[in-house]
Amino acid sequence: xxxxxxxSSALDFWRSDHPIAQSQPKKSSLRKxxxxxxxxxxxxQQAREIxxxxxxxxHIMVLKASSRRRIQNVEFHVRSQPFxxxxxxxxxxxxxxxxxxxxFVQVAAEGVFPITAIAGVEFCGYYAAAPKLESGMRxxxxxxxxxxxxxxxxxxxxxxxxxxxxxxxxxxxxFSASPKETGLMLLLCLPxxxxxxxxxxxxxxxxxxxxxxxRKVSNKNYYRCDLFxxxxxxAIEYDSNFAHTGSADIANDSKxxxxxxxxGVHVMSVTWEQAKNPNECExxxxxVARRLGKPLRNHSYDVAExxxxxxxxxxxxxxx
Length: 320
What we know:
alpha/beta, four-stranded mixed sheet, three-stranded mixed sheet, 11 helices
């Protein structure tokens, strides 16, 4: 007898500290839900404990409508049709969870574009969102990649959520290192009609090797830039509240900036306070746009309202 978690419950699991949620998981070859779905209260409680979800609403997939039961804080979702191999991950002998790829499509099916984009970048990044932690995140290896998400969408063509997932995939970049980097990148790059600034996508945490001619100002072999546009060699460095505070950190930041500038990389520093301030963020976007040769265009009469709503998702806790 099995319990299969899906949707936001799968997202909760992939954000947990469970060992399986720390890197790309081994996926099941099942292409249909197990026949022995268990919807009993003891089985559901056991699934909660195994997956570390606590008392948040639990979303469970079942084969047929007759399997649904009326249980407080539990919602059943009927899924009788086959799905692509790799859609499920076995967590325990009796517990499965939607894989990161299937979860991404299920989140997309809810129709909230910013949440879909956030989840996609997070699954492809080096962190799991953890709002209750002071840092707001838990470091981990990427669960998947934009390439694997696209491959899954191709194999799941026609299923609910795939169309929305494909739209979000146009803005998903691998290797984000924090929710705040993700929020800043999406705010700058999502299209204007969604409240973003419509700028070209950067590379995230891109490695730049230090040449011998720069070693006089740096003792590093390479640096990683938070957001990097190869043309015209522009980097945004996000200054976290959890780093860069001591004198040694400040000195290292200065060496880093000097080395990158010596290699022809123009470096902009952005603080979280700037990102949260609409006027300051507008200035940042305009500077980046000018550097990239991509003037900002506001195609919507209600752009201010759209940006306010988008910021609630990307720079706050709304929807996470």
